[in-house]
Amino acid sequence: MATTPPELSITRRRARTGERLIVNALFLCAVLSLAVTVGIIAVLLVDTVEFFRDSSLWGFLTGTVWAPGQGAGTDGLYGVWPLINGTLMIGVGSIVVGLPLGLLTAIYLSEYASSRVRGTLKPTLEILAGIPTVVVGFFALQFITPDLLRPIFGEDRVFIFNAAAGSIAVGLMILPIIASISEDAMRAVPSSLREAAFGLGSTKRQVSLRVVVPAALSGISASVILAFSRAVGETMAVTIAAGNSPKMTLNYFESIQTLTASIAQTVNGEVASGTVRYNALFALGITLFLITLVMNLISARIVRRYRQVYS
Amino acid sequence: MSAVTDALAPAALRRGASRSSAKIALDIAFSVVLFVGTIVGVIALATLIWTILDSGWARLWADPAAFLGNYVSRLPARAGIKAALVGSAYLMVLTAVICFPLGVGAAVYLEEFAPRNRVTNFVEANIANLAGVPSVVYGLLGLGIFARFLRLGPSLLAGALTLAVMSLPVIIVAGREAIRAVPDSVRLGAYALGATKWQTVRRQVLPAAMPGTLTGTILALSRAIGETAPLLVIGLPIVIFSLPNDLRDPVSALPLLIFDWTSRPQHAFAEAAAAASIILLALLLAMNAVAIFLRNRYTIRW
User: Could you tell me if B172 and B234 lie in one domain?
Assistant: First the structure.
């Protein structure tokens, strides 16, 4: 201490104060993300509480009719189930499309493709994930329904707006998610497992299906849950292609409405701020937020667990 | 004993042979199924792009200058994308200006300065969750906080803030990965020459991590620029006949216009929507090309 020249100790102390300021500023940047979460929850809660002042929570959670601005009272009927029904139809339908394709793609890329083929196919499929959802919606409305579904299943059976077109469109969008995360999980399977199976006389198909896929199952399920969560949160493709008629149906050729499409339709219709219908937006928003949050948490937990297994 | 074996062997061998040839057939069939399954995605992508080009090309090339330079119109033949295209460009620049410094700051803090404690873990888990929040929920956040609480209305600033908040988690994740890829020897070398921690980060780590961070930022921005739902929710207008002069002026955006034209019954508007989609896809393709170029040209291999 005594040997340190005073000037040096002063500059060093100055540098430290400056650095502390910078570190604090950087800390604020990181903590801003917490503010965003708090902001989302606060915004959703405030107007949701307002909504349930005018409309019953019980009716929202159990009602099977979503008819804002209609029905007995002046406020309309706000039962969330038709929208949940539509959302689940799109979620399940898009998994039915995206899971087999995504899984086949993942097995092919991880076990079969040469590195050159993988290097071309992977970025090509990732382009699919980057196409704006509004353009995918246009494609569903202009191609999937008129040129694919209607010729196969019949003009009079398939509505112009239908859940099947929405599901196929969203299925194509989640295919790269399933393929990419599942492939990562499959490549994380140690090659010693593959070699042992080959040594016992297994063929490539047997190694893929009986060793690699089971070993990567947690990663695959995480990818499916994440993809389902994306499908639930998808807005524009379903708004454009799946229609805007909230109903309790399981017919994929009918027009339905999802939670997200209901939000989009309400804001597009210029509903006056402060009305019950407007506040209903936020009740739908919080429902959506909670559904996707739970699925993302489950998916993250599964991924964390399978990472621990092999590393 | 040996007679028994002799008697059994040919049959067993035959069975084994037929089983293994069935096995081989199954294996070949399986690899074909895998390949076909993989190709379906590529075919879907090709069909999508072909559909857009096929329905929009004629409309776009009939009079490109008018299409790019006209405002929207009730008449599909006279409608253009000027306000939406310029609006999207303004939104993109402003979004980048807002979220790039914040995202890089957060990434630097989390990788270089954050102590391993509960707060850090919580912040990290929170960022991961934010990345999974649906974009329409970000729209509700923008509507509640920027448009109404801060009284920005459906303006350029409110739109850019909403897109910035949405892109932030993606940029933070990309920035962290780029910073993590810088080897410790670089940091130790700087310390050995007497640099302080911040000097090391600013002059060594950040420049080395910049290509990766920029690539991630451009990809995040290209996602933001294709987003419709958040902008629709905060109420950005579609029918607009002026360009913004001020942060608080209303703007439109290309995806909003495509959505509006897609929802109209007239066939001519569908063609216009496809033509506008071509422009949007070309824009995104250009941004992705820049990102790939940056990654290949400037990434340092350690």
Answer: yes
Write the CATH number for B177: 1.10.3720.10
Helix (H), strand (E) at residue A77: strand A76-78
Taking the Cβ of residue A260 and every Cβ of chain B, the question of whether any pair is shorter than 8 Å is answered with yes
Give the pLDDT band of residue A300 (cuts 50, 70, 90).
confident
Helix (H, G, I), strand (E, B) or coil at B254: helix
In CATH, the architecture of A76-310 is: Orthogonal Bundle (1.10)
Distance of CA B114 to the CA centre of its chain: 28
Distance of residue A93 Cα from the nearest chain B Cα, in angstroms: 16
**A282:B38 CB<8 A:** no
Question: Å from A48 to nearest chain B CA?
Answer: 12
Alpha helix positions (H), chain A: 6-54, 57-62, 81-107, 115-130, 133-139, 150-153, 163-187, 191-199, 204-206, 213-215, 217-233, 236-241, 259-268, 276-310
Record: contact A203-B110, CB cut-off 8 A: no
Residue A295 burial (10 A CB sphere; 0-12, 13-18, 19+) = buried
User: Do the Cβ atoms of A33 and B277 come within 8 Å?
Assistant: no
Closest residue of chain A to B49, computed from CA coordinates? A139
Selecting from B36, B130, B223 the residue whose C-beta is nearest the C-beta of A130 gives B223
Is A53's pLDDT higher than 60?
yes
Give CA angle at B100 (B98, B102), nearest 5°: 75
| Closest CB from A43, A101, A172 relative to B141 | A43
Q: How far apart are CA B39 and CA B18, in angstroms?
A: 31
Q: Is A229 on the interface with B (CB under 8 A)?
A: yes
Residue range(s) defining the domain that contains residue B32: 2-61
- Read off the pLDDT of residues A137-181 as tens digits, 9 standing for 90 and up: 999 999 999 999 999 998 889 999 999 999 999 999 999 999 999
Residue located via tokens 């947690």: A218
Residue type, B230: P
CB A99 within 8 A of CB A178: yes
* Residue A201 CB neighbour total at 10 angstroms: 9
Is A300 within 8 Å of chain B by CB?
A: yes
Closest residue, chain A, to B198 (C-alpha): A19
